[in-house]
Amino acid sequence: MAAQDVLGQTARLASSSALLQVLFRVVTFGLNAFTLRYLSRELIGVVNVRLTLLYSTVVFLAREAFRRACLSGSAKRNWTKTINLLWLTVPLGVFWSLILGLVWLHLLEVPDPSVVPHYQAGVVAFGLSAIIELLGEPFWVLAQAHLFVRLKVIAESLSVVSKCILTVTLVILYPHWGLYIFSLAQLLYVSVLVMCYVIYFVMFLGSPEATKKSFPVARVKALLPSFVEDETFVNWKEARLTWSFFKQSFLKQILTEGERYVMTFLNVLNFGDQGVYDIVNNLGSLVARFIFLPIEESFYVFFAKVLERGKTVKDQKQDDVAMAANVLELLLKLVLLIGLTITVFGYAYSQLALDIYGGSMLSSGTGPDLLRCYSLYVLFLAVNGITECFTSALMCKEEVDRYNFVMLALSFIFLCISYFLTHWYGSVGFILANCFNMGIRIAHSTHYIYHFFRESTHRPLTGLLPSPALLLVYLISAVVTAFSEVLFCCDKGWMARLIHISTGALCLAATLVTMFCSETKLVHFVRSQ
After folding, report:
1. CA-based angle 424:429:433, to the nearest 5?
2. Where are the beta strands (DSSP E) in 376-494?
3. Strand ranges (DSSP E) for 388-455?
């Protein structure tokens, strides 16, 4: 396959994956809003934190290393040995399901059956769902290696839609079923996902299209484990690579799901607070996923192409340095203003947003304080995303290795701080720990940027300094909307809520007008780009 064809298909695959992530987030967002009206937050906490963590841990430990090893290198390989290796994910999944299932059943706190019924059945179902999903791993890797974009989109879309339809139906008809609802929905999700891949390959293999593409697997039987005479069962090079990736993936899973492991194993939050935290976390991360992540990914490519990795500012082309410095300054200003707007208005409108989204269950407890803190965390996320995007595009291998070590140390510090802050401040402690973690990372990145541009006339970090007039308007807006919340929100009826919303709309309009007048360079950049 020509490099240009690979690039085109890879781009389509990346775009499809991004759209699927948006779909999953929106569906989860809507599903949570619906189920909150019918089910307890304790039940949602057990499903979204405890049981989902069991499922994701089993699946990640059983397949992540195999995926990375078997997708490395060219698609031209001995697929019989690769498929044999991939089938080892199933017994590995059974092993992890049994071990972790026993931990979840006997070593962790068991929810009150009167509040969260059928917990044991839920553990078994989510563990079983992980094993069922692993049955489709050889099919998934084969499809991914040959860039079957449409198959992935259809399979994952159908499985998500099926899960949602069943969940909504059972929640309306049988809300007293408790964890049975989510167990059946999870089993349906993985079954539909695997069946889509199996049915596709049953129809595809041996077809004229497969022959035309010279597909390396000719028969469905070749997708099952098989011995080859006078040859090893697996490719030992791939097997050793898998072991190397497994050692990395074990640590990566602990660090990726750190908050949930702290919640699950250290009992720092009750199940109700875990449910509220997960909902607020999903709600708050929508902005980061939909706005900041696309900016970071796109401009990482820009900085990597314009500047040369590992070279000082004097050794770069000066026209390119000037362009990169200008773009970095304006990007920092853009994300800073978005983050400041969310922080300022998020403080006064968190309670109202949660009341509309989930009713009194979310708006009467710790939910509003959580979302207020998350609004501040979004500001840290915004700045960190761009500063790390720039440094990642420029650091040489030695600097990257040093930074990875720093990140590893920071991750363990984050877990420790999370534990103590959660003991002192409850679920808000997790977000405060995240703010601390992001603050340290921003300090590291800004230090790198400052030193990189020190020997030039460019000062892109000035993008982190909004105009005084805009800062004044933000301050006035924060005070006015905070007083408006005290006077009109959120138990004084819809008329009072509308007054509160109108107050916020006027303050936001004043902020945007000031922004357009004082940040003309940024406005021109956004319009032109």
Report:
1. 125
2. none
3. none
Give the tens place of pLDDT for each residue, 292-320. Answer: 776 776 677 677 777 776 677 676 677 77
**pLDDT at residue 15 tops 60:** no
Break the chain into its structural domains and give their ranges.
1-222+230-264, 269-458, 466-528
DSSP 212-260: HTT-S--SGGGGS----TTS-SS-HHHHHHHHHHHHHHHHHHHHHTHHH
| Alpha carbons 512 and 485: distance in angstroms, whole number | 21
Q: Report the percentage of the chain scoring pLDDT > 70.
A: 84
Q: What angle do CA 148, 151, 155 make, to 5 degrees?
A: 145
Q: Which long-range contacts (CB under 8 A, 24 or more apart) does 505-512 make?
A: 507/345, 507/476, 507/477, 507/480, 507/481, 508/341, 508/345, 508/477, 510/473, 510/476, 510/477, 511/341, 511/344, 511/470, 511/473, 511/474, 511/477
Q: Are 157 and 23 in contact (CB under 8 A)?
A: yes
The CA distance from 299 to 307, in Å, is 12
Our CA angle for 357, 358, 360, nearest 5°, is 125
Question: Average per-residue pLDDT in the chain?
Answer: 81
- The amino acid sitting at 387 is T
Question: What tokens were used for 167?
Answer: 């969940």
Number of DSSP helices (H) and strands (E) in the chain, helices first: 22, 0
pTM over 0.85: no
The 10s digit of each residue's pLDDT in 459-486 is 777 777 888 899 999 999 999 999 998 8
| Assigned token pair, 186 | 């999870």
3-class secondary-structure state, position 116 = coil
- The region that residue 215 occupies, defined by phi over 0 for left and psi between -120 and 50 for alpha, beta otherwise, is beta
pLDDT at 422 over 80: yes
Q: What's the CA gap between 4 and 1, in Å, rounded?
A: 8
Q: How far apart are CA 419 and CA 441, in angstroms?
A: 20
